[in-house]
Specification:
Layout lengths: L6 H15 L8 H15 L4 E2 H8 L4 H13 L3 E5 L7 E5 L1 H17 L4
């Protein structure tokens, strides 16, 4: 039995397609998006997160693909490295305006179709 599509789902899908056409979503594979989400979650909690924190959050089978993605995300402006003033060897990852804009667009699309619980 087919049910009619809710207009909010159509709107959200339209926004998703627009993001994809702009290259915002295609530029990032799922693992890269997961890294950005891990950094965003830490920032939302008011915490700083380093490479080890990201590895603990994602629990990958191998660390190397995540570490190379972190470098690529930094190089392409999705994330930025911030040096810890107390220990200059320690680097924390933080969101950039580019990643914040993508997260905000994705969030606004999701809010249209996901009802709060």
């Amino acid at each position: 039995m087919d049910q009619p599509l809710d207009a909010t789902i159509v709107d959200a899908w339209t926004e998703f397609i627009a993001l994809r056409e702009q290259g915002v979503i295609e530029e990032l594979d799922e693992k890269s998006r997961n890294i950005i989400y891990a950094v965003a979650a830490a920032e939302k909690r008011g915490e700083k997160i380093n490479q080890n924190g990201i590895l603990k959050a994602l629990k990958p089978k191998s660390h190397m693909p995540i570490l190379s993605r972190l470098n690529a995300l930094t190089r392409t402006g999705w994330l930025a490295k911030e040096t810890d003033p107390a220990d200059r060897r320690m680097k924390f990852m933080r969101l950039t305006p580019k990643s914040v804009a993508m997260l905000n667009l994705m969030s606004s699309s999701l809010k249209k179709v996901v009802k709060p619980v």
